[in-house]
Design goal:
Blueprint: E1 2-11, E2 18-28, E3 34-37, H1 44-52, E4 59-64, H2 84-94, H3 100-111, H4 128-138, E5 144-148, H5 156-172, E6 174-178, H6 182-188, E7 191-196, E8 199-203, H7 206-213
Parallel strand pairs: 3-6, 3-7, 5-6
Antiparallel strand pairs: 1-2, 1-4, 7-8
Helix pairs in contact: 2-3, 3-4
């Protein structure tokens, strides 16, 4: 269960507060792999960050009894001054991983960082940091994986590997996904949340959701 309770989110500006949501209450259906759809500026990324807990509402709250990942494919929570290995163990501890040694091995194997795994993340290339973040996330069994533009992770070979891993996870867990690629959403999702003018509409059929989105 994921509930938005009287959720209000705005950003201050010279023209006054710019509202994304005003007193929005909505329950996101469980047991679905959901695409978040909406026109540019509708608030998809804001909603995604609120679900992930990386941003907070001005009023109201997000309530869930599920274990949600941080946004997969984004380097959220990766500390640049720590090594890949140190980041892995820290993330594992924060997320209650029981066997940190096994978790570390899984991340090291999946991220394919070689000797860089024991160097500070600040020395990594632009493609290496999200690979580490992805590996740290995929090695934990979350109830729901929050996926943001998975096609941005690494080179073509690693992206293929990442997609296969996420598809496997989506069979046992659920995903909530933001992507500009309809083909990617069709690959992972079975339903849609369409965000328009601060309101959410759930479509149990993904194609119906896409058709609505394309009229906005």
């Amino acid at each position: 269960m994921i509930k938005l309770e009287c959720l209000t989110k705005y950003y201050p500006s010279r023209l006054g507060n710019q509202y994304i949501f005003k007193n929005l209450s909505f329950e996101i259906p469980s047991d679905h792999n959901i695409a978040i759809l909406g026109s540019n500026g509708a608030g998809k990324s804001t909603l995604f960050r609120l679900l992930a807990g990386s941003e907070y509402p001005n009023h109201g709250r997000v309530v869930t009894d599920l274990n949600l990942s941080w946004p997969v494919a984004l380097a959220t929570g990766i500390h640049p001054k720590m090594t890949g290995r140190e980041n892995t163990r820290f993330i594992g501890m924060v997320n209650g991983v029981a066997d940190l040694d096994l978790y570390e091995e899984k991340v090291q194997d999946f991220a394919e960082l070689g000797k860089k795994y024991d160097l500070p993340v600040s020395t990594y290339s632009s493609g290496m940091r999200p690979r580490l973040a992805f590996a740290c996330s995929i090695a934990i069994d979350f109830d729901v994986y929050l996926i943001d533009e998975v096609t941005s992770v690494g080179d073509a070979r690693f992206r293929k590997k990442a997609k296969e891993a996420l598809l496997q996870k989506s069979r046992d867990s659920n995903v909530i996904m933001v992507s500009h690629e309809m083909s990617e959403l069709r690959e992972f999702c079975d339903s849609a949340l369409v965000l328009h003018q601060g309101e959410l509409t759930f479509y149990q059929d993904l194609e119906q959701g896409i058709a609505h989105y394309q009229t906005l």
